[in-house]
Design a protein that fits this description.
The structure holds two protein chains of two kinds. Chain A is an all-alpha fold. Chain A is built from four helices and no strands. Classes of the chains: A mainly alpha, B alpha/beta.
């Protein structure tokens, strides 16, 4: 894990920044949201992929790509969470000021 | 927290660029990641003793194939690769180097190359053996056909290195180690090589023994060539020691009265028993030939050449083998030189006198028995006498001044008669020769010195 993070820090940073931006936008975004059922399915899919990665059942290059994808996804999620939280803080301070 | 759930339902659009990132990242990073992991894995097992190592990286999975020389080494190497950061899985395709039973190693020499084959316990041993072979053999090609195996006996390296040193002493042959038994076969390069190898085998490491040593010595060769044009006798080949060499040169000087003796002999051990007793009479037979070659190879004597007349050829063929020590063989290929053109009485006398000026007919001291060393000279005299069939020849015996006149007179007569008998036995008619003894009455030099006396003890051929 540490090796992958060191080797791909650039891509992980890019995912994090992408997540930050997306999280920042998401708070005020008015577009369609993911339904609860879809979100559950997506969560299940991610869980299966994580289990597959941890169990190392996918061999060779696909296994590596899966690891890389999940790491980038995790980094993206962290970025999103931080971005949304920051935007929310900023918005609530404005509201209080107003 | 509730907000986070709410917002998260709006995060999905970012997944589209994220997937694009992921594809690009996977596309660009896979080859460098694989080569980095391959380099790290190779470095991790660099110092481990392995054969046929192969490391293939697929994603983060390493396929590691190698042959190890011990179970601990094998496990250690796999562990080292597993511990490389970034490696996800190791496909362990390692195994132990096969065990050879019996453990056989060989070094074989033929005309052009030395081939090292069989099993070697470790790569370092293999390298050392090849290096030693190359260093010891000079420019000879050394071919490596050794494979690595487990199961070598203790101290194998020392034994194999000692034997590799011996291969240089062979002309051709094979040295084999089978477990702790050593077998040797072939032909030694030089005389004494067989003995040197036998001596070296005494230093084999403890535990090793010689099962068979069938190294043969090269033939012990002695050659003599009588060249009538250059008037030389060339001696080549081997003699047992410098005393024998001097004795042979002296014997050759006595038997070959007119030829210059060229001594190219080398001293070497390994002569067959009775060497001198066979070679000296064989040289005597060669001295009776006009031109000829004597080859002594081990205990086989081959004499070829041209005798001066028929009876001489027959005498050489029949007589020589009898003088040889037991176990010696004699092969004669003697032809007869075509007779030379007849000459008149004057030339005949001249030729006879020339011959007798170059050499003297010798007798045993105080007796009338012709010394065998004079056979060569007598044959030349017979040949000349055959060229002048119409002349009568007086064989005149002379002695030196020592002793009583009566004894000297009788001795000179007997010696002259002995020469006449030799000529008659050679096929000349007895009626052409008269044996006359002059005792010490006709000296040609002073009887006061040994040199003068030697000149006075003589046989003269006088054409009448």
């Amino acid at each position: 894990m540490a090796y992958l993070v060191m080797f791909h820090w650039g891509w992980l940073l890019a995912s994090l920044l992408l997540g930050l931006a997306m999280g920042w936008i998401a708070v005020v975004h008015r577009g369609p949201s993911v339904s609860k059922i879809t979100a559950r399915w997506l969560g299940g899919l991610v869980a299966v992929l994580v289990v597959a990665a941890l169990a190392r059942v996918i061999p060779g290059r696909p296994g590596y790509w899966l690891d890389l994808g999940l790491l980038m996804f995790a980094s993206y999620l962290v970025g999103c969470a931080v971005g949304s939280w920051l935007r929310d803080r900023v918005l609530s301070r404005h509201a209080r000021a107003a | 927290m509730h907000g986070l759930f709410k917002w998260s339902s709006k995060w999905w659009p970012g997944l589209i660029p994220l997937v694009v990132f992921w594809i690009i990242a996977a596309w660009t990073s896979t080859p460098p990641l694989e080569s980095d992991l391959a380099a790290r894995s190779t470095a991790a097992v660099k110092d481990t003793l392995l054969d046929k190592r192969r490391i293939v990286v697929d994603g983060r999975d390493v396929t590691f194939a190698a042959e190890a020389f011990s179970e601990e080494g094998r496990r250690g190497a796999v562990g080292s690769v597993e511990a490389v950061p970034g490696v996800r899985l190791v496909n362990d395709e390692t195994r132990l180097v096969p065990e050879a039973k019996p453990f056989v190693w060989s070094a074989e020499r033929d005309v052009v190359r030395v081939t090292l084959g069989g099993s070697s316990p470790l790569p370092s041993t293999k390298g050392k053996l090849l290096e030693t072979a190359r260093a010891g053999l000079g420019g000879v090609e050394v071919v490596d056909q050794m494979k690595l195996s487990r199961g070598a006996p203790p101290r194998f390296d020392n034994a194999a290195l000692l034997l590799v040193d011996q291969i240089g002493k062979l002309k051709d042959g094979k040295i084999t180690i089978s477990d702790d038994k050593v077998s040797l076969s072939g032909m030694a390069r030089d005389l004494g090589g067989r003995e040197a190898i036998a001596a070296a085998l005494k230093n084999l490491p403890e535990g090793f023994s010689v099962a068979a040593n069938e190294i043969k010595a090269p033939p012990y060769v002695f050659q003599a060539y009588k060249d009538p044009v250059a008037v030389t006798l060339t001696l080549t080949g081997y003699v047992p020691d410098s005393n024998a060499q001097a004795a042979l040169a002296t014997a050759a000087g006595r038997k070959f009265f007119s030829e210059k003796v060229v001594d190219n002999l080398k001293v070497s051990i390994g002569a067959p028993a009775g060497f001198a007793n066979a070679v000296v009479p064989a040289l005597g037979a060669l001295s009776r030939l006009s031109t000829g070659t004597l080859v002594v190879s081990d205990r086989e004597v081959k004499l070829s050449g041209d005798a001066l007349y028929d009876a001489a050829a027959a005498q050489i063929r029949a007589g020589l083998g009898k003088d040889f020590p037991q176990g010696w063989q004699f092969k004669a290929d003697i032809s007869v030189k075509p007779p030379a053109a007849p000459v008149d009485a004057t030339v005949c006398q001249q030729l006879l006198s020339d011959l007798l000026a170059k050499g003297r007919i010798r007798f045993e001291s105080g007796r009338a028995t012709i010394d065998p060393d004079s056979a060569g000279l007598l044959d030349r005299l017979v040949e000349t006498a055959l060229r002048c069939p119409s002349v009568n020849i007086e064989i005149a015996g002379h002695t030196d001044g020592d002793g009583e006149d009566g004894f000297n007179q009788a001795l000179s007569e007997k010696r002259a008669q002995a020469v006449v008998d030799y000529l008659v036995k050679a096929g000349l008619p007895a009626s052409r020769f008269t044996a006359i003894g002059y005792g010490s009455t006709q000296p040609v030099a002073s009887n006061d010195t040994d040199e003068g006396k030697a000149q006075n003890r003589r046989i003269d051929f006088v054409v009448r």
